[in-house]
User: Which sequence fits this backbone?
């Protein structure tokens, strides 16, 4: 199945002509606690395994989309984006999936509420917000699962940014990906706090998609990844159901390290961690050894996201300067 | 089989009473190019897989052993070692395997020619030198394979320090380990140079033996390690046979990273790398990207051993200050 075919199947008989002036939507950033690492279908962004994330309430992308005759126009944080930038081209290719005819353009105004340089991926919240905004503009009224699938065609992890709280993105088994979407978990962990620790705001050397592809194709350790994720998801589910912060932190940290381990063993190696990342990991371990409830996770980059509890925020902020603390369920 | 039973089987009818004043021997340090990581038998130091090393000619341990009535006496680099130190106790437990009766003591004078703080393990060369010295003292005249097996009972990787040049330590399949010993390869790579880069001379937090045990028992990625080693050994054999430095460097570096990856995924994580190790790895990658023939390997610690070619030694020494260069076949 191509992306265009998948989008057509999703939209069914729904019209592709805007029914209102503009669509406007917000979608949150999500932090993977059990990682998405490896695609079973590159075109449709279908993952090898399920994954689990926590959304950061109120932190994400706000997007307005309206009809615009002629080539698409994109602004990012208020600044016009040249049509030949990679980001504008990626958006236009995504808009190709829904436009009524090749000359039907869109004006996309997108604003990331992500703290500047916090090392948070914005493509997940960005494609989720754009998808919701498009849904509103065209009056599609898509079901949550369909919104997730459509967002996934833009960026895999966007499938998880369509809901608040804990979200499980199911890998599904169908070739057309119609059973691969994000579903919110009912359970909450009100006291959970996420600390954003930026050790480098530089662009990473290798993007997630080629890094995943290289790891899956060349890392001799990747074969063990799917089984590991299955077991980690069981543990994470049990931890969330029991409201057990420590069990959740433990499995999230171990899962992140396992993901980076599969990358380090790729040939050639994929190393996202910087010396400063290692120093920060060691700092977290030292604090935990001293009794502080703190764990880390690390995505495909050098920055750490810390998991801690509300009552610990002040002490952690003192111990690790430069931390930005977020209440995910706020 | 216990260690004592294995030693008895090895020595057969040979006498345990010294036949001369003293035994004196040297054994070289060895650097694993395809790592030994995981024991199939803890008591006998039997490895899960074969491994491959290069000995550093002239760098290692020189040991003199003589008969001494009463408790064992040990000097290390000319200094007497208290009997209650971990090192002295480990030596005495090893000497238990060969002494004629419980009161038959030894005087062991051992000297490491390993550059101070170079981050080179001395237990491999130490037990190999002691084994050779004991062989001489007692006039056993053991075959090379038997010397390797006896040394292995002291420290696993000592099985490889009984010969110069490239050495393959076979895992063997027998429960008694009589087919698990080091064998030298005939092929040489005269231009090979090893650069010793010490990023920390601190004692490591976790020793190799508990680190191996934890990785084997808890790392979900360890299952892939034995197959990976088998494939890496085939590549390393082919590279050595072809005299292909780059192919050997590539597989040695990838194998070391895979070993560290299995550790990082252990639960709890085993992380030998320090921030400075990562910085040094990145420096090697930068130099290689600029065309310099240089690769690294890293044992169960933070320090790097660089592989390079003779004609490159001056340039590498300039690029990476503090490097100590060794000619392994000198």
Assistant:
């Amino acid at each position: 199945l191509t992306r265009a075919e998948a989008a057509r199947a999703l939209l069914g008989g729904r019209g592709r002509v805007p029914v209102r002036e503009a669509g406007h939507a917000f979608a949150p950033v999500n932090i993977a606690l059990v990682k998405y690492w490896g695609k079973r279908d590159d075109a449709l962004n279908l993952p090898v395994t399920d994954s689990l994330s926590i959304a950061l309430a109120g932190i994400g992308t706000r997007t307005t989309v309206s009809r615009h005759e002629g080539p698409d126009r994109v602004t990012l944080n208020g600044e016009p984006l040249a049509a030949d930038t990679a980001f504008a081209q990626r958006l236009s290719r995504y808009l190709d999936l829904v436009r009524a005819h090749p000359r039907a353009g869109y004006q996309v105004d997108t604003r990331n509420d992500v703290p500047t340089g916090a090392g948070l991926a914005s493509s997940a919240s960005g494609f989720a917000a754009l998808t919701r905004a498009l849904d509103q503009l065209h009056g599609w009224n898509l079901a949550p699962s369909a919104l997730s699938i459509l967002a996934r065609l833009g960026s895999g992890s966007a499938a998880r940014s369509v809901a608040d709280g804990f979200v499980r993105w199911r890998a599904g088994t169908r070739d057309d990906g119609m059973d691969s979407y994000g579903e919110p978990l009912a359970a909450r962990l009100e006291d959970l706090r996420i600390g954003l620790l930026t050790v480098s705001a530089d662009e990473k050397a290798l993007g997630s998609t080629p890094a995943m592809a290289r790891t899956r194709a060349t890392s001799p350790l990747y074969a063990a990844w799917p089984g590991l994720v299955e077991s980690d998801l069981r543990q994470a589910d049990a931890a969330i159901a029991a409201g057990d912060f420590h069990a959740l932190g433990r499995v999230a940290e171990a899962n992140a390290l396992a993901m980076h381990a599969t990358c380090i063993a790729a040939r050639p190696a994929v190393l996202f961690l910087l010396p400063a990342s290692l120093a920060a990991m060691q700092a977290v371990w030292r604090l935990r050894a001293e009794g502080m409830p703190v764990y880390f996770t690390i995505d495909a980059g050098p920055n750490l996201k810390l998991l801690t509890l509300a009552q610990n925020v002040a002490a952690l902020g003192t111990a690790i300067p430069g931390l930005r603390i977020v209440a995910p369920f706020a």
